[in-house]
Amino acid sequence: MTKDELKAIVCAAIDKRQKDITALGDNIYTEPELGYKEHKTSAKVQAVFDKLGINYTTGWGITGVKGHLKGRTSKRTVAMLGELDALVCRNHPDADEETGAMHCCGHNVQIANLAAIAMAFKDTNAMQYLDGDLVLFAVPAEECIEIDFRNTLRQKGKIKYLGGKEEIIAQGGFDDIDASLQMHVNPTKKTNGEIQVAGSNNGFIAKIIEYKGKAAHAAFSPSEGINALNAAMLGIMAVNALRETFKESDCVRFHSIINSGGDLVNVVPDYVQMESYVRAASVDALKESNTKVNRALKAGADAIGAKCIIKDLPGYLPLFNNKGMSSLLRNNSTKLFAPADVYDGTHSAGSTDMGDVSHLMPVVHAWVGCVHGALHSAQYDLFDRNTAYSKSPKAMAMTIIDLLYDNAAELETILAENTPIMTKKTYLEYMESIK
Ligand SMILES: [Zn+2]
After folding, report:
1. Which of 67, 128, 139, 166 has its C-alpha lying 20 to 30 A from 34's C-alpha?
2. Key word Hydrolase present in the record (predicted)?
């Protein structure tokens, strides 16, 4: 069996399984679950693996599922990742009425892609032609939301880190993996889909900010109070005054929400809690801008004699796509997409915990254009199901075959040319340094 013949039969198997693949994607869409709570979605992945006779382990980052397919020889291991979680988007017509959860970042499509590869590789016995193992990893909690809830999980010792992939790295779930790939849906104006095969993303540091003042009657005796809400507003304004000092090349972003801004309108608020991210394009820029932001936030409290307590939490690291893996994905994508619809992309200000994985091993994180409306918005609409459920898993499957075919020669070259940015040890040291 030549490599091209193997790719052709695996792609044909994805065609044959279209009904099963789309049904799973749609089913997960109707039951969205937030990070570290994806128990039903996790069970759906396990059911797919059970049906196909794929061995797996569970409990990775609470809900993660790690499936294993053995190659002809077990030289190297490649992982295909799919994210389990949804996020909150109450205004979306398809949002869960109770929780507001909604798959408006399309992670259900990722799990369907993961299942497509599981089905196609099992249906065709593709692994007997490959010199390496394939891990099919359903991973939790990519959306870094409900920071207060996750911090509580941390305090209870249930998790160490906010992001699912970070947690799994700490648990050792990536120790036996040499390279990883995943797809993610993306908005597009094209009618036949498009795919971004390279580019980079910002990382971020998350924070919980508390302002403590002194309560007093807002009309009789405001002079006796210390207004924590004013302190918070001054803190935000102080960060805004910093913006001109951020270098364009560092792509710094600061955004915050107020979780708690006072209880009663006629009482001077004595407590405000905020959540925020500081994002930047490199670890150095992250640390530098974070120091400035914290100084500015504290200045808001100093101005009026309030207290400001900042809890920094390790967010995600910047994402760097591996050139060799991008190149394989680009070549495979040109067989499925029009040449103008396969592109490299530039730097994006958004973040993903795939960035953390990219500091440890070669990765490729594809952005597959198949939705209308912005990600995370009420307008999100998966309109191009052929690109999402057929072209995308085929591009990923062919890239996996490239990596592991012929003594995993392509992967060996990629690994020989790649110097990991961090070891697991230096990674964990960095994570512990953010506090
Ligand atoms: Zn996402």
Report:
1. 67
2. yes
Instruction: Provide the pLDDT for residue 160.
Output: 94
Could you identify the residue written with the tokens 């070891």?
423
From the CA of 354, how far away is ligand 1's center (Å)? 10
| Identical fold between 3-201+319-433 and 203-314 | no
2 CA from centroid of ligand 1 (Å): 35
| Cα-to-centroid distance, 108 and ligand 1 (Å) | 10
> What six digits make up the tokens of 316?
């995600």
Candidates 394, 377, 369; CA nearest to 93 is 377
Q: Could you tell me the distance, in angstroms and rounded to a whole number, from the CA of residue 106 to the centre of ligand 1?
A: 7
**CA torsion angle 155 159 165 166 (round to 10):** 50
**CATH T-level topology, domain 203-314:** Alpha-Beta Plaits (3.30.70)
Half-sphere exposure of 168 (CA within 13 A, CB side): 32
Regions of the chain where pLDDT drops below 50? none
Q: For 314-335, write each residue's pLDDT tens digit.
A: 999 999 999 999 999 999 999 9
Domain boundaries, given as residue ranges, for the chain: 3-201+319-433, 203-314
Beta pairing class for 55-60 and 64-69: antiparallel
**Cβ pair 184, 160 in contact under 8 A:** no
Q: How far apart are CA 264 and CA 266, in angstroms?
A: 6
* Separation CA 366–CA 326 (nearest Å): 8
- pLDDT of res. 75: 86
Sole residue written with tokens 């065709």: 124
**Count of CB atoms within 10 A of residue 15's CB?**
11
21 C-alpha to ligand 1 centroid (Å): 19
Separation of CA 2 from chain center: 35
Q: Between β-strands 179-187 and 363-372, what pairing exists: parallel, antiparallel or unpaired?
A: parallel
Residue 184 alpha carbon to ligand 1 centre in Å: 7
405 Cα to the center of ligand 1, angstroms: 30
CATH topology of domain 3-201+319-433: Aminopeptidase (3.40.630)
* Alpha-carbon span 132 to 401, nearest angstrom: 10
CB-neighbour burial class of residue 241 (10 A; exposed 0-12, middle 13-18, buried 19+): exposed
Give the whole-angstrom CA distance, residue 113 versus residue 391: 10
391 three-state secondary structure: helix
Tell how far the Cα of 85 is from the centroid of ligand 1, in angstroms: 8
Nearest Cα neighbor of 269 from 227, 209, 222, 218 is 227
